Amino acid sequence: METANLKLCLFEQLAQIGKSLGHANRLMILDILAQAPQHVETLSNKLQLSIANVSKHLQSLKQAGLVICEKNGSQRIYRLSTPEIVPLIHAMRQVAEQQMAEVSQILHQQLNPKAPLMPFNPKELKKHLDANEITLLDVRPEDEYQFGHIKGSINIPIDQLADKMPMLPKDKPLIVYCRGPYCLWSYQAVEQLNQQAFQASRMAQGYPDWQTLPQS
């Protein structure tokens, strides 16, 4: 094969990944799979999409090499094919926030004012957790928390927060995180908590992005 054709072939393969990423529902599927592997039925429930629709999107992601499928008895479990997908999605978000006015407007005018950002980097956060100076709250579903979470955090899923809010301390700051910066649960949680006189702020990152940061 000639050099020019080889180059074209390589970029065509890259284009397959770009094509697969070019749908909002597929990006949301990757966002959930970055938290934990999922059954098709669970993804369907979390996304409020039909099983047939979710399966179609998963096949596109699988063909592009972005997810893999494993059998567990009669069920199929999907997971990210590589951890490198997390920084790939992060890079897409950064470009969108810098270059797309609508994305920037939603974040800076509609969402960020409702939920102040926490002032800590990973090293500082660990220091405050070790000193028991803050409470770190994970508002993702329990299955995602059980698969992986920031050490020292407690889990109260967003749909249980109102009932379990009295269990949380008011004498120290609350730091809230969820799936990522486009996950609205952390914004909702911080807003609800501060309305009840808590000292709440949110993390800029979700759990998957947090794992990619230097921890020392």
TrEMBL record:
Listed CDD domains: HTH_ARSR, RHOD
SMART domains: HTH_ARSR, RHOD
One Pfam family this sequence matches: Rhodanese
Molecular function terms from GO: DNA-binding transcription factor activity
HTH arsR-type domain boundaries: 6-100
Location of the Rhodanese domain: 130-212
InterPro entries xrefs: ArsR-like_HTH, GlpE_sulfurtransferase, HTH_ArsR_DNA-bd_dom, Rhodanese-like_dom, Rhodanese-like_dom_sf, WH-like_DNA-bd_sf, WH_DNA-bd_sf
SUPFAM superfamilies with a match to the protein in the record: Rhodanese/Cell cycle control phosphatase (SSF52821), Winged helix' DNA-binding domain (SSF46785)
Protein name: ArsR family transcriptional regulator
